[in-house]
């Protein structure tokens, strides 16, 4: 029950995320997984329900003639139907994990390199586990399938440690050069000619002169 809670919580998160991503493979994964789970529950009810009825009737002696003629064939039919339904559910679950794998392969640049291959391998493990569950009539294959699924879920759990990863190269910061005035472009104040005029008559004086050449006033 705890595992189911986390699985359906994750499926709800995928649905919320896909409102933005609009990825068809994510949507197919979510729908197929839910569909496969519901069908599997129905198959388990048929299989174990028939097995319980068979065990009860065989455990109560004497077994009636009507059970051998009518009850036993019906019970076996129910159990076989349950097995067929379980195989169908496993096939649907395999398709779900394949769609999730396609999503990771198609969008691998969205994930860090050390993580993307684990995610893809995790989908493969879960797909193999679903296949072995389809052969669950054999106890050994069911146990091996559980191991594959445990490993697959462990690898997909790496998504919990996902750090934002940019698909494109980081943008280069463009630095705009500040306007600066070269020293050589600035006017040399000392090199400018300084014009001097006589304070008495206003005539222009020669540079370095001590007396006005027009009125003779001392500068």
Features:
single chain; 219 residues; mainly alpha; two-stranded antiparallel ribbon
How is this structure best summarized?
The chain is an all-alpha fold and 219 residues long.
What layout of secondary structure does this protein have?
Layout (H helix, E strand, L loop, with lengths): L1 H20 L2 H36 L5 H42 L6 H22 L4 H18 L39 E2 L6 E2 L14
Antiparallel strand pairs: 1-2
Helix pairs in contact: 1-2, 2-3, 3-4, 4-5
Description:
By secondary structure, the chain is mainly α. It has a domain at 2-115. The chain has helices spanning 2-21, 24-59, 65-106, 113-134, 139-156; strands at 196-197, 204-205. Strands 1-2 form a two-stranded antiparallel sheet. A hairpin with a 6-residue loop joins strand 1 (196-197) and strand 2 (204-205). The longest helix has 42 residues, at 65-106. The protein is rod-shaped. Mean pLDDT is 78; it is low at 164-193.
């Amino acid at each position: 029950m705890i595992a189911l809670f986390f699985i359906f919580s994750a499926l709800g998160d995928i649905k919320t995320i896909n409102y933005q991503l609009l990825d068809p493979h994510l949507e197919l994964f979510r729908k197929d997984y839910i569909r496969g789970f519901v069908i599997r529950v129905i198959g388990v009810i048929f299989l174990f329900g028939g097995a319980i009825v068979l065990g009860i009737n065989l455990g109560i002696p004497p077994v009636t003639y009507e059970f051998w003629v009518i009850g036993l064939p019906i019970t076996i039919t129910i159990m076989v139907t349950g097995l067929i339904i379980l195989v169908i559910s496993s096939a649907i679950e395999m398709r779900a994990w394949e769609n999730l794998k396609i999503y990771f392969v198609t969008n691998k640049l969205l994930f860090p390199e050390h993580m993307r291959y684990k995610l893809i391998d995790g989908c493969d493990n879960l797909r193999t586990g679903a296949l072995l569950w389809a052969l669950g009539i054999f106890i050994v294959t069911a146990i091996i399938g559980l191991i594959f699924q445990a490993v697959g879920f462990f690898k997909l759990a790496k998504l919990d440690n996902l750090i934002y990863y940019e698909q494109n190269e980081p943008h280069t910061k463009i630095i705009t050069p500040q306007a600066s005035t070269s020293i050589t472009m600035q006017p040399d104040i000392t090199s400018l000619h300084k014009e001097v005029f006589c304070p008495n008559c206003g005539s222009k004086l020669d540079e370095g002169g001590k007396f006005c050449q027009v009125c003779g006033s001392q500068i």
